[in-house]
Write a structure and sequence with these properties.
Belongs to the ROK (NagC/XylR) family. This protein has 282 residues and is of the alpha/beta class. It is built from eight helices and 14 strands. The chain is 36% helix and 18% strand. The strands form five sheets. It has a five-stranded mixed sheet, with helices on both faces. The N and C termini lie close together (5 Å).
Amino acid sequence: MAVIDTSARAIVDGTYRTRPLNSGGDADDILEGITAAARALGTDHGRQWAVAVPGPFDFVEGIAQYSDVGKFDALYGIDLRARLAAALAANAVSFTFVNDADAFALGEHAAGAARGLSRFCCVTLGTGVGSGWVVDGERTDGAAPGGELHLLEFEGQRIEARMSRRAIRAAYARRTRLAAAVPDVREIADLARSGDPVAREVLEDAFSYLGRALADPLSRFEAEALIVGGTIARSWDLLEPPLSAGLGRPGLPVIRAELSHEAPMIGAACAAEGALLDSQVF
């Protein structure tokens, strides 16, 4: 969490706060974790709150719709706007909820790798495939169902069946016949750099597949560039070549995101900027 100066498109120095949050905990624990971090920001801000959250979520009403998604399931059906407003003694209308992938894309447009672009797609690669589509600084659904690339099917399966943390680890386990102690993606990337042919093939397969899957949506959207962020993008040396080859569009820039934790906070603030006075809190 942080106080955001929306005119500077930046976190106000000294205001960034982070706390561990157990996404598998009960509702009270999750909400207390969020509100405790918010209280730590003090009161020297505009008392407008932008909250970047993953879907499924009713962003207009502020109601969580998580069910069997593996995180925040305990929040299902809870009115987060009402609960957070009560806990923080805030006005309920001061809360704006923004999809976290959209917020990341908007943050990159405001202060990161997408500055100056008018039409682009931003994907975040980690647990799954997040996506944000931006035209002239506003989020759109782009060329994916509801704007969500993870709902897109390609070559007979959902994208995340081949390109996600779970899928990459499972592919490595199958090819090496590991039944336990399967390395995480970062460790698989290290193995690939050290000459492990299976690790390199697994990553190349996943990233090339993603490129092929994105080729048509990006073409239909007439994207100027593809921005790539998330934890898996840290292995850029292994990611970019097969991804670009899979896209098959040499003239389309594939750009690594410049921001990390700042992007969704700045982006959420930008999405809610019409309701702001001097600053925005995420």
